[in-house]
Amino acid sequence: MSGNLLRIAFGVFIASFGSSLVADEYSVDLKPVFKQYCFQCHSGEKIKGKVDLGSIGDLKSLISKPKLIENLLDVIDYQEMPPEEEPQIPMAKRNELVSSLKRLLVEAIESKKSDSKKRALSRLNRFQYNNAVRDLFDLKMDVFELPEKMMIRQANYLNSKDRKMPDRVRVVSNSRNSTPGMKDVNPFPKDLRAAHGFDNQQDQLTLSPLLLDSFLKLSVSILESPDFNRKTVGKWTQLFEAPENNQSLETSVRQRLSNFMPLAFRSLVDRETIDRYVSYSLNMINKEKSFELGMKKTISGVLSSPLFLFRHETIAGDKAYRLASDLSFMLWGSGPDHQLLKAAESGKILDESYLRQTFERMINDPKIQRFLDSFPSQWMQLENALAATPDPNLSRYFSIDKDYSASLTMVLEPLLLFDAVFLENRSITDLISPSFAYQNEFLKTWYSPNELKPAEEDFQKVRSDNESKRNKIDGLTLELRELREKLFKNLNPIRNSLLESKVNTIKEQGEIPVDLSPVAFWKFDENLDCSISDLNLKSHGKISFEQGSVVLNNSYLESPKLPFELHAKTLEAWIVLDDLKQRGGGVMTINGPGAFDSIVLGERMAKHWISGSNGFARTEDFVGSKPEVLTGKPVHLAMTYSDNGKITLFRNGEEYGTPYEKRLAFFPAQKTSVFFGLRHPPAGEGKYLAVKIKEARLYDRALSGEEVSKSMKGMHVTLSDDELISALTENIRKEKSSLEKKIQDKIRAINKAPKAIEEKKLNAEVQKVYDNRIRQQLRSTVFERVSSHDPRYGGVITNAAMLSMTSGPKRSHPIARGAWIIEVILNDPPPPPPNDVPPLKDDRDSKHLTVRERFAQHRENPDCAGCHSKLDPLGFAMENFDLAGRWREKYPNGREVDSSGKLMRKHQYQNPGQFKNSLLQEKDRLAKAFIGHLMRFALSRELEPEDSLVIDEIIERTKPNNYQIQSLIREVVLSGSFR
Hints:
The chain is of the alpha+beta class. The protein has six domains: 113 residues, no CATH class; 159 residues, no CATH class; 183 residues, no CATH class; 82 residues; 201 residues, Jelly Rolls (Sandwich), CATH 2.60.120; 50 residues. Helices cover 44% and strands 11% of the residues. Strands 7, 9, 10, 12, 17, 18, 19, 20 and 22 form a nine-stranded antiparallel β-sheet that branches. The longest helix is centred in the middle third of the chain and has 51 residues.
């Protein structure tokens, strides 16, 4: 029976039976029931829930309290009272009681009509202000940042002609990095949220003197912003373009303002008001000597007028303009357009059939996205999700990207679901348990049953990539070697002929000298200058000079960056080790990015050793090194490093130890230096070094054993590049140049080629690759429609956004989750907890308990039991989800999760999927709750008892169509409360 029918029935009831019978209804029918089932808790000295039924003496007293009657109806009709442990009202008697209370509610509302309050003034909130200004000027950008707009559709699929949501959409959340507004325009503060989460409520949208001053400055800054120009303002010509010479200035201004002001003030504007603005505009145009500037001054005055800032009708008692304004702000978040204003002016909008047509036009207009930008996120209170901060030690991937937390992606899933349900006009039950969901790759990963860690195939892929990298470098190295061999083959005959000529000239006796030609040669003097190259060494630490040698005590010399590449190479030096207490130090080091080669001396396990390193292993004993006292003796040391990675060490011209092979480390030009002294001491060795260095040389090739031996003995000659080039023919010079270019190109290719990863660093590298994949998924703007066959997930309840925002940093909070469900889904918010209730503490014993066990003692408090009997079944139903919304079977302490319970005392469930099915069996209640939220948003105020009768009417009208969402919105618009 509808609210109107209830009123008619009640009138017939009064006329037929007289007032005496009605007067007896309370004492005869109602009070005995209250006394038997309710007075124990709601009468006497200690009253629960602030409901005192014992103080109601007669029917008149009860009828004077419509809010109480409404509350009694709810708890009795939904069998929430009496408490489960108390004797229950028999169903037949309960039905009689509900019927009586419904009749009394009609009478109570009728008796209160004369006391109805006038509609409160309500200023525009930030969202409405921005939209209204954009529409007035056809502005191509937002006026200021709007972080409350949580989802940006990168293609507006809402304009779909077939009213079908695409299977693939692109959306992003800019809530923490919203699109900037106009330059030099600062918004007023964010609006306060009412208890139910809406920011358009009249009692919150007040206007303090300070805020009024902000509005005045804001209107001026908008029109003076450099972003407010011909390109961004679609209505520039209609408002700010100077009129042609043959048109009267006053006529032009009047025409423009007469078109603009009714849109700005959302009603008819009387001639006197327009005259004032026209006069002001003409004065400003003359004063500024500019039509554009004068009109901007006038328009900023319009925007700062209370008639623009406040939502109220300017013509007393004109319901048509009020209805047009309310309808537009509800669906479009802005003022009415020309068509709505014309309908209000003619009164057609008051006609129900025309209002239906207007509703259909408006929900199919692109501006309907503003309703979807405001109502769903506020209804679901998703702003709280952006404040979720799970402990990174418990959920590291939630905040793996510091600039884009997982919550920014999570909030998009329920918002896209709401878009789809609205666009496809589905039943609101699809908001609870849909057959589909919109998810990007991150959410698919997040909801997967697998642990968030690299899989075995990730390791296999890295190993495969490693092998490919090694093969590529090996191939390039082979090609480099072949090029060099070809170059040497062309040049060696000429080089040998020149050297032979030098040798004959020198007429050395005995052994024949060899060609060395170092790329750097250091022979030290008192200033530590180099004798041949210009690669002068820079000292670090205490350096001295004795008899042609530098003395290094825990110090070192460093060359500038080398101007040439080093692949195959030789480093040699004449040294004296000064102290038997020597404990390690890189006497000679070639240091490149990520790699180094060193000759190291030291005592480890009572033996001297020499080692080399190339970036694949830091240090390694040279195979076959033997104990030998080095102190006080001049020693010639050399290390050769060939193209194939073979390392050979020489001591006094002879091979020392057994050569070994490591993969070649390349040392690029301008990134490589040479060090002498204490560098790269071996792990576990002391950092002590006392050494003298007399002379050192660096070669860009691996010397042979004979060359090293003759170098040590001084049996060598050198050949400069200039000498060699001057002896070449033109063809050989060109071929030499071509080969050298190819060699350099090949060296650059080797340097740029990705290097293989050491096996011991494999785990860290795979984890890094996996983390980067998660980051990439997290920022994906592509959301795909996926089938939702898993009852654990999907819908506005079991999604990561809701589940994470109702958790704390360390654990899930079932009471917070229960409070969200009872407030958002059932629209029955519990009262705040008593001030003296202690919080739930984490102690040593609690670590071994389940969350349900830890709450057991908390629920024993009689002041808490009433609310917990409603909240606990709702919150514990979600306990299979951890603090970030991922599924779990056990708690971290190993205890099994118990998510079973009973919904509304009649629907038993064992898990979240069954819980959602239980909710779907209460469709009428779900619809009533959702309609209540819609009406609160539409009316911008708290609901009154009279609105509950309207909600009953809407339920009756929309139930046959299974509560399709557009039907619910339409019936709210057509309702008496809204109209």
